[in-house]
Amino acid sequence: MSPDTPSPARQHAVAACGNPGVVEGPLQGYHHETYVFPLAGEAGAAAATRWKCREPRAGLLWFDRRCFDSEEQLLTALSGRITSIPGITEFGGLRLQRFIEGRTLGALSKSGRPIPGPLLRQVVGLFRELVEVTPETLVVKRRCEAGDRPESGDTNGFLERLVRFTEENVYLSNLDAFATLFEDVGVDGDTFSHLRKHVSGLTERPFCLLHADLHRENFIVDPVQRLWTIDWELAMLGDPLYDLATHLYLMRYPEWQARRLTSQWVRTVEEVRPGSSNGWQHDLRLLMDYKKAQSVFTDVIRAALSLGPEPGPGRRQVSRTGAKLHRILAEAAVPLGVESVPAPDRIARALVRWRRTHGETGTGARTDP
């Protein structure tokens, strides 16, 4: 495609809008090239609804197991069951998501800081609605084969599939490019044996719908303080406690607010589906340990790629990246069986060595979704 030729996503947006001048984008986002616009005939109208048109970015790594064939199909199926999610409309054969006007929760309250009580209550309300959506009542086309879906309640089978995905699709699939870097930071194939042993023995819980990516940038606060949930692409059916563990890990609440949310979550899911919090006192820690371990493999690859080719980053960026990976490795040392976490400067030197070897020849990293 010529540099002057509009991308397919922009072409679709302009066709749906009819006025290139009011198409906004591309918006900031890792996985997709996204444009926002009103539909044809609505531009300039008071409080016109705007819609999103997006296409996957080429050559990106996907590090998460995906369950449903289409986010738009899922959102359509959830209409009337989950409140405060984007609506869907069709135009010219395209399914468009409504663009939620507002600010991300991350823009209002940065990672590590508490969120206001009214917004926290809306987060709990979302979990209430999620646990009400059971595998039997959600009819949406799925990506995975029927034989690769654990039975409801099989929390150990559910987590094993996540561990296996990380091992096969993140670690092994990218080993040719990143083997030396993984070794330099202290992880190898044996770490998955340690991880499996560490997280084994979960209590059974009935499965429900999980968003599986509830972080601050996936919540939008609108002008009237209503909390909307976006980006359902990683949603799946599985262990409800996994959704809480993922949320706590990604949100980085202050400890006191994490405890408050957890107690409210337990009370809420038990009101809706008794047994949904079974064993949480023991299992929540293990599921969060899995998230810490998963982050090591994904963040090592992302950190290396973020340095880019020659002439490369400055010493300050490399030092910051080494310090960040040191913190991530230290958090995951126990579940991965890592006895000694390399110092930040040693990790930084390993990143520089890797960049010198791979910066000009390409990484060979797997980019399949």
Average pLDDT value? Answer: 90
What value does the Rg take, in angstroms? 22 Å
Biggest beta sheet attributes: 4 strands, antiparallel
**What percent of residues are in strands?**
5-15%
- Structural class category: alpha+beta
Kindly state the percentage of residues in helix.
40-55%
Low-confidence stretches: none
Can you tell me the overall shape? globular
Give the SSE string: HEEHEEEHHHHHEEEEHHHHH
Describe the 3D structure.
- There is one protein chain.
- The protein is α+β, with helices and mostly antiparallel strands.
- Helix content is 46%, strand content 10%.
- The chain has 12 helices and 9 strands.
- It has helices at residues 8-17, 71-78, 105-108, 117-132, 155-171, 175-185, 190-198, 240-251, 255-272, 280-306, 315-336, 344-358; strands spanning 32-38, 50-56, 88-91, 94-98, 103-104, 208-210, 219-221, 227-229, 236-238.
- The strands form 3 sheets. The protein has a 4-stranded antiparallel β-sheet. The protein has a 3-stranded antiparallel β-sheet with strand order 5-7-8.
- β3 (88-91) and β4 (94-98) form a beta hairpin.
- The model has no long low-confidence stretch (mean pLDDT 90).
- This is Phosphotransferase.
- It comes from Streptomyces griseoloalbus.
- Residues 93-258 form the Aminoglycoside phosphotransferase domain.
- Pfam families: APH.
- InterPro entries: Aminoglycoside_PTrfase (IPR002575), CcrZ_PhaseVar_Mediator (IPR052077), Kinase-like_dom_sf (IPR011009).
